[in-house]
């Protein structure tokens, strides 16, 4: 099961690395304001679409090995659902809005497409599980240090995810920055959890 666990670690870390690098180098894209999901739009959109799909599948595959490695079926189910949420986020993309891709009106559409609405549902699952998975780990792991660390990650991610939702509704200037914090904290932790589970 060790290869599956390393697959999960790779998927967790790679997802963060790709959206950070792509966001910093994408013409017309402002990572401090725009959400990660907007990276699926435009000529280079295939990069983030592939990131969602590949990394989501790798995280889901890693979840298959977690019951035996950690003794927690609940943790494995949470991680598996998070991975599938990432896959669905890539399969259904958000609508152009708020100035991206370049040439798009700098406003929020009054109505969303069915694809965007499905993307939003997938995103809701992801943003519930970003703090939810480490919260499950608090009760599902035996190692005291990991339980404390998981609790801290759950709290930080929950605050960041909640703040992102509030900022998104207002189209605040730092919406993308706060969203990235919520994602990165949890997925870096998850990658470390997968790596730790191999020992």
Automatic annotation (TrEMBL):
Annotated keywords: Membrane, Transmembrane, Transmembrane helix
Pfam families given in the database record: DUF998
Transmembrane segments: 6-24, 45-66, 72-92, 121-139, 145-165, 177-197
Superkingdom of source: Bacteria
Protein name: DUF998 domain-containing protein
Source lineage: Bacteria, Bacillati, Actinomycetota, Actinomycetes, Streptosporangiales
């Amino acid at each position: 099961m060790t290869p599956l666990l390393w697959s999960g670690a790779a998927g967790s870390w790679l997802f963060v690395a790709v959206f950070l690098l792509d966001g910093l180098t994408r013409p017309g894209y402002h990572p401090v304001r725009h959400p990660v999901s907007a990276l699926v739009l435009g000529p280079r959109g295939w990069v983030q679409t592939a990131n969602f799909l590949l990394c989501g599948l790798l995280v889901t595959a890693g979840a298959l090995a977690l019951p035996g490695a950690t003794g927690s079926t609940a943790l494995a189910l949470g991680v598996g659902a998070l991975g599938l949420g990432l896959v669905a986020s890539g399969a259904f993309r958000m609508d152009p809005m708020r100035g991206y891709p370049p040439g798009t009106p700098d406003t929020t559409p009054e109505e969303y497409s069915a694809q965007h609405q499905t993307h939003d549902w997938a995103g809701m699952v992801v943003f519930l599980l970003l703090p939810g998975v480490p919260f499950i780990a608090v009760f599902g792991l035996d190692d005291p240090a990991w339980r404390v660390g998981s609790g801290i990650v759950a709290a930080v991610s929950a605050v960041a995810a909640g703040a992102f939702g509030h900022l998104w509704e207002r189209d605040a200037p730092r919406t993308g920055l706060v969203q990235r914090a919520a994602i990165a904290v949890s997925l870096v932790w998850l990658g470390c959890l997968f790596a730790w589970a191999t020992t």
